[in-house]
Amino acid sequence: MNHKHLELLLVRQMPYGKYKGYLIADLPGQYLNWYARVGFPPGEIGQSLALMQELDHNGLSSLLDPLRRR
Questions:
Q1: In the 3-class helix/strand/coil scheme, how is the chain assigned residue by residue?
Q2: Which conformational region is residue 40 in: left (phi greater than 0), alpha (psi within -120 to 50 degrees), or beta?
Q3: Interatomic CA distance for residues 1 and 58, integer angstroms
Q4: Residue 7: pLDDT over 70
Q5: Number of folded domains that form the chain
Q6: Closest of 59, 6, 56, 10 to residue 29, by C-alpha
Q7: Stated pTM of the model
Q8: Which domain covers residue 34, as residue numbers?
Q9: 40, 52 in Cβ contact below 8 A?
Q10: What's the CA gap between 47 and 65, in Å, rounded?
């Protein structure tokens, strides 16, 4: 994980589904956990969702706070 991956969470929007248009960083934990159970989609969106789920699950979402302030 590097800062570029974290920055993507704050600019990339969910392209489809119930939370279409939401930033990946703002998706609710239960939605991220659902993807962890059923499988993340392929490609960059899936990688971003998996990273955000890891951060959320481990209580590390605050790592994004300094990036949000920019």
A1: CCHHHHHHHCCCECCCCCCCCCEHHHCCHHHHHHHHHHCCCCHHHHHHHHHHHHHHHCCCHHHHHHHHCC
A2: beta
A3: 15
A4: yes
A5: 1
A6: 56
A7: 0.91
A8: 3-68
A9: no
A10: 20
For residues 56, 4, 37, 17, the Cα torsion angle rounded to the nearest 10 degrees is 100
Task: Compute φ and ψ for 10, nearest 5 degrees.
Answer: -95, -5
> pLDDT tens digit string along 15-34?
999 999 999 999 999 999 99
Residue type present at position 16: Y
Rounded average pLDDT over 32-58: 97
How long a stretch of residues is the chain?
70
Amino acid at site 36? A
Residue 26: CB atoms within 10 A of its CB come to 13
Token code pair at residue 37: 């159970």
